[in-house]
Amino acid sequence: MRDTSGGGVRATGRVVVLALLWGSTFLWIDLALDGFSPVQITFVRCALGAALLLVLARRAGVRLPRGRRMAGRLLVAALLCNTLPFALFSLGQQSVDSGVAGVLNATTPLWSLLVGLAAGDRRALGARPLAGLAAGFAGTVVIFAPWQSGALAGWGALALLGAGASYALAFAWMGRVLAGQGVPAIGLSAAQLSVATLLAALLLPWGGPPPTAPGPVPVLALVVLGLFATGVTFHLTFRTIVAEGPTQAAAVGYLLPVVSVLLGAVVLGERVGWRVVAGTAVVLGGVVLTRWGARSRVPAGKAGECREPLPAR
Question: Do residues 52 and 193 make contact, with C-beta atoms less than 8 angstroms apart?
Fold first, then answer.
């Protein structure tokens, strides 16, 4: 009989690290925007994350997936899961606080429910999922308070919500065409971020002039964002899915708003009003309702496959 006494500790540690890295993403984006444009941030974070994962894949002796069909699938996944949401978050955070951005990132499961409804998933028609969807919408409305003159609603908020919707579409796509292909997680994540880097490079001509002399803080923030909050996080996400299943990986998302709001308030001095606190609580309550009773579809022992990918923030 195999001793699994340390498995729970390792899984818990992985969840904590993921929550801290994902939740800090919005802080690093905010700091990097002081020296780089949103498109430049998107390209560099993809490139640094891909470079790190390619090195890890080579050290592990894992070959990247090949074939035209797989390339096409990775192209769509990289666009929806990496390049597009990364760009939208950077664009949105030009006018929206990092803490609020983290809260809106937690709406991804709610968007996933809408995608399921559109695809005819009967499980999405249950009372709890629909109640969760309504609660999530209500919480978002409380946060942005469109009835007030100084409301947060605007193009930046729409960009952040669009990023969450893009993640949901990516989740559905990756679960359908990339799951269960027998590709090691490190190889799949390295290949996807590499494709995302190429897509982001195509946007550079329209991404603003090259930075002249960015200060050390934006540069350091961008390096941390690319290597840790993108590369390491993306790899650990797949590791969590393989070891614990998508439900456990999705649970990390419940902690992201707490981390992002706290970091925004402590490091950036962002104001945390009652609407943000109350709206965050309602949004997370809605997410919990949509995930109530959800079970992992990853059978134990499939340590080399990714059955149902979860988008990395």
Answer: no
